[in-house]
Write a structure and sequence with these properties.
With 202 residues, the protein is an alpha/beta fold. Helix content is 33%, strand content 25%.
Length: 202
C-alpha cells in the first residue's frame, strides 16, 4: 500500500466537453482529515474526483500526494468509488467482492472481514442483480475495507443507504480517519463526520 500522508490541490482547473467546469480550485488535506465537495449538479464534483484519481487530466494546476509519487499513489494508494456502483450483475456477491479485493491488493481474509463489517455474509451466494440498491452500495463500499488504501475518493457514498446505514458508514469513515486515512467525498447531503467543505461554484 502506497503511503499517502496528504493531498494537495493547487489552482486546479478541469475542462469537460469543451467547457471549463472550474478553475483555481485549491485544497489541502492531511492524514486524518476529510473534505466534502459540494455544488450543483454538473459543477464538476465527479470530474474533480476523477482528476485526483488520474482518470481525467487537469487542464491547469497541480495535484500532489505528499511524499508519494503521483503514479504510485494512484495505482496503489487510493480507492475511487463512483456514483455508479460498477458491479457485474451476473456475478455473485462473493465473486464480486473477491474480484475487487484481489484487483486492489486485498486477500480472501480481508474480503471476508469486509463482508462482516458491511453485513454482506448472508448475501454472498446471491447474484448482484438480486440485491437491493442499498445492498449493492454496501457491496461497492466493501472494497474500501477489503483492500485498505489511505485515500478514499467517494462519489455520493451515502446514496442510497438508509438512515441507519448512513450512520454506520459514518463510523467506518471515522475509523479510517482515526487510522491516518484521508477522505474526499462529493456529496449533496452533509457527511456524518467532521469534514472540511469545498464548494465548486458554477
Amino acid at each position: 500500500m502506497e503511503v499517502i500522508d496528504s493531498l494537495e490541490l493547487r489552482a486546479v482547473a478541469v475542462r469537460r466537453g469543451g467547457r471549463r467546469l472550474f478553475s483555481d480550485l485549491s485544497l489541502t488535506l492531511a492524514s486524518g482529515e476529510a473534505c466534502a465537495l459540494t455544488g450543483a449538479n454538473g459543477a464538476g464534483k465527479t470530474s474533480l474526483l476523477r482528476a485526483v484519481a488520474g482518470l481525467v487530466p487537469a487542464e491547469a494546476g497541480a495535484i500532489a500526494f505528499g511524499a508519494a509519487e503521483a503514479a504510485d499513489a494512484r495505482s496503489s494508494g487510493l480507492h475511487l468509488v463512483g456514483h455508479q456502483d460498477g458491479l457485474k450483475p451476473a456475478r455473485t456477491t462473493r465473486e464480486e467482492l473477491l474480484f475487487w479485493s484481489a484487483w486492489s491488493g486485498g486477500t480472501r481474509d480481508s474480503a471476508e472481514g469486509a463482508a462482516v463489517a458491511l453485513e454482506l455474509t448472508s448475501l454472498l451466494d446471491l447474484e448482484v442483480r438480486q440485491l437491493s440498491a442499498g445492498q449493492r452500495r454496501r457491496l461497492a463500499l466493501a472494497r474500501l475495507l477489503a483492500a485498505p488504501r489511505p485515500l478514499w475518493l467517494l462519489d455520493e457514498p451515502l446514496s442510497p443507504l438508509d438512515a441507519g446505514w448512513r450512520l454506520r458508514f459514518g463510523a467506518i469513515m471515522q475509523a479510517h480517519l482515526a487510522g491516518g486515512g484521508l477522505i474526499l467525498a462529493a456529496v449533496h447531503d452533509p457527511l456524518p463526520i467532521k469534514a472540511k467543505v469545498l464548494e465548486i461554484a458554477q
